[in-house]
Amino acid sequence: MLKTRLFILLMMLLSCMQVSATNLKIFKGDDQVPALQLQDLQGKVHNLNDYKGQVVLLQFWATYCPPCRKEMPSMNNLQKKMADVPFKILAVDMGESRAEVDEFISQVKPEFTILMDPEGESIAAWKVYAAPSNFIIDTQGKIRYTLYGGVEWDSPEMVKQLKALVVTQ
Amino acid sequence: MCKRNFSFNSVCLGFFLVSACFVVNAREVTAFDVTNVSIDVRIFKATGNRLLLGFACDEGRSHAEEQTAAALAAGGVEVWMPDMLSAYMLPNLPSSRHEIPTDALLGLIEKALATGKEVYLIASGKDTELVLRVASVWEDSHEKPLSGAILLFPRLFKAEPVPGVIPEYVDVVGKTKLPLILLEGERTPNRWGVKSLSSQLEIGGSQVVSQLIPSVRGYFFKRPDANRSEEMATAKLPDLIMESLLKLEHMHVKN
Description:
The structure holds two protein chains of two kinds. By secondary structure, chain A is an alpha+beta fold. Chain A has a single domain (32-167), classed as Glutaredoxin, CATH 3.40.30. Helix content of chain A is 35%, strand content 24%. Chain A has five helices and eight strands. Chain A is globular. Mean pLDDT of chain A is 89; it is low at 13-19. Chain B is 34% helix and 20% strand. Chain B has helices at 7-20, 63-74, 84-87, 102-113, 128-141, 194-202, 228-235, 237-249, and strands at 27-34, 37-44, 50-54, 77-82, 118-124, 148-152, 180-185, 208-213. Chain B has an eight-stranded mixed β-sheet with strand order 1-2-4-3-5-6-7-8, with helices on both faces. In chain B, helix 4 (102-113) packs across helix 5 (128-141). Chain B starts with 6 loop residues before the first helix and ends in a 6-residue tail after the last helix. The chains are: A alpha+beta, B alpha/beta. Chain A binds chain B through residues 25, 27-30, 60, 62, 64-65, 94-95, 120, 123-124, 126-131, 133-135, 143, 146-149, and chain B through 157, 160-167, 187-193, 195-196, 217.
């Protein structure tokens, strides 16, 4: 009896834990996922709906954000480590000029899709108030996790947690 | 949110800029006895009818703020900069703001109003919480209204913002009806929260006017790595504050 109670208590504690080893937090916001349709640096329009069936890391970032600069190499590595599963990184610049972004890219060299949002429309729709702000969207198009702040995206724990989203669909 | 055009402002600003060319550092330190504690206040005297009271918790170390105060004083705005941290022997930590007694802030406002000038409040970053706290208590306990407050890049989140969720603000947000000018750097993610914060501040009855400062990050005048744009903005900070005071004069305290 005591063992059963302890087991139930342990399960309850685990289910209450929001923060994993990766710092990803279970998203508890609105089920309604905002629209996202923005141009990349080559002028190609990307619509988030077109990425259903893939796990998407949607990041809001800015060139003046030191953690954004620091973590982008690990995002390049993450993309390589996730190459065997349907996975996409969409990184939305937060309302800066093309010149500012180009200078940043020449230094940091991100190898994933950069989207421009000069008017900040998606930033408001996605309720982003800090950078970097990250959303992990599953293959069904639902937001599963969020993460604020810099992180090592290519850590084994992170790769495992993101790949689990593909497997469990 | 209210946005107005102040045609008279540019004329006043012109006079201010001319007078600011003859800046002299009229700084003096006066010790006020407030609630049985001696609080050192750096005072930049001026003959005009406006007094700007800044709750600068910097232990008297900010040169940019002193230069700004001296320029404002040359333009006719008296500036008081109390050192609240040293008075209460507090370290310069965010948590120390909660240890500063409201009665002490109220006492300093009473001293400032005793000069017969119109009193405005100013603070930056997390210190803006102090301004909102004392303004709220002041309104509940005093008849004479304050004239307004300037919030420089306010940092008023209750906790770390969660992506996709409207942020919660500290409890004092939305508790005052004091007219507010909210200034935010253009190169900070917080600029995207200006609308949300303004809406929350307006709940208390405040008229809020917000303005983005182009090409600067938050705390631009305190940054050791300030770039050219931020150095220029720091040099223009007295003009920006003067313009904000002129705007506040045209805003109304709600009864």
